[in-house]
């Protein structure tokens, strides 16, 4: 009996591959299938910076404390005029109360948006933690401000909706005295214990570090952490990770690249279709009261961003910036719900889809493929006919439009595949923006 038990445990051990604490080994780990299939996630920037909630229109508002240091800059001028020169950034913490925070409502919105996972900023570069971090006395959401485990409450609500939950975590902190004086002690005595505490408490499905750019991964001990995460931690075995593990790592090491507003999108990971584009609806991640409605992209433009990203093989991590009292701003909620309406009709062309390697380049059409079908995603109404080059040498085609009953007439010759699009009045359209034609090429 003991021999059989030992053999079974040995077999279980062999089924769980061990990763060594070096990039050669770690980079062999594939992205989990759930992440590859999800395609759409929600990013949340929320913290003490949500109280002033201000930045220049082309600047991230979550950098408020950092930008206050420039006494000739716009942020300091705003701060001095609004709060006074003697009002410190730390004075905002008691004002970050989250008194209207309802994580079940948030999770319901995320579910209805069609997103499959959520990534919360557990700690930004300001160092304020949204969980009761024992390493960070009086600079976390339980000790001051909300007096509540904001992260833990959201984990529970998001998972109750059937979505995956992950955490953003900043390696560095702008003004942490230990970081500024001795980075090795900071990593050993503060950062790694803090990050491991976050993982062990909440068992995230995704770990999304940032703030890594001042030091190589050897200083952050990222290889050591990842080997622990994959082999020993309480995180799911299919935990996903990004590429922000050291100043040499972006696009080179980790599970997926993280182009930000489409920066750094041509490296090894992105070129292989292993990337996650992260953007806000405007130009800030944290809520910025200085942005007006015209600074927010329309639902149509956000859907184009999603489609452009997925057609290149990536995921879209679309950010919202809640208010200090815990509300999702109405304009952001509206955009998410309208994206969900579109995905309810057209999600077949998005979830679990891959880029179509043979896709022709057309100005207003993007392509994905899945299970033998090709999806032509039209960024504008295609008119009477949708036509594109016969790149596969197909002899025939079957076509339909997602959200409409019945087939569409399709014709194929040596050079072109063309689909006849029915004339529809606006009330008969399957959706308001971005239409999808499904094709089986034979």
Folded structure, characterized:
- Residues 1-14 have low confidence and may be disordered.
- The protein has helices at 2-15, 23-26, 33-38, 64-68, 74-82, 103-113, 150-160, 177-181, 183-202, 217-220, 222-231, 268-271, 299-311, 330-346; strands spanning 40-44, 117-123, 164-170, 206-210, 240-241, 276-280, 315-320, 354-355, 365-370, 373-378, 385-389, 397-401, 410-412, 416-420, 435-441.
- Helix content is 30%, strand content 17%.
- The chain is α/β, with parallel strands linked by helices and 442 residues long.
- The strands form three sheets. The protein has a seven-stranded parallel β-sheet with strand order 5-4-3-2-1-7-6. Strands 8-9-10-15-12 form a five-stranded antiparallel β-sheet. The chain has a three-stranded antiparallel β-sheet with strand order 11-14-13, with no helix packed on it.
- The radius of gyration is 24 Å and the shape is globular.
- The chain has two domains: 19-349, Glycosidases (TIM Barrel, Alpha-Beta Barrel); 356-441, Immunoglobulin-like (Sandwich).
- Helix 6 crosses helix 7 (150-160) and helix 6 runs parallel beside helix 14 (330-346).
- The chain contains 14 helices and 15 strands.
